[in-house]
């Protein structure tokens, strides 16, 4: 029996991708540009380093 968790990693990646899609679609509906979200997250990532 294969005990690797590669499948779990793939499912987590899909879940993460779906969360990003949901975030960007919600932002679009709220009138926030995707580029504004990317800039905000990039700035926060730089601050965290």
UniProtKB/TrEMBL annotation:
Domain of life, source organism: Bacteria
InterPro entries: SinR/SinI_dimer_dom, SinR/SinI_dimer_dom_sf
Domain Sin: 7-45
Cited PROSITE patterns: SIN (PS51500)
Pfam family, any one: SinI
Protein name from the UniProt record: Sin domain-containing protein
SUPFAM superfamilies xrefs: SinR repressor dimerisation domain-like
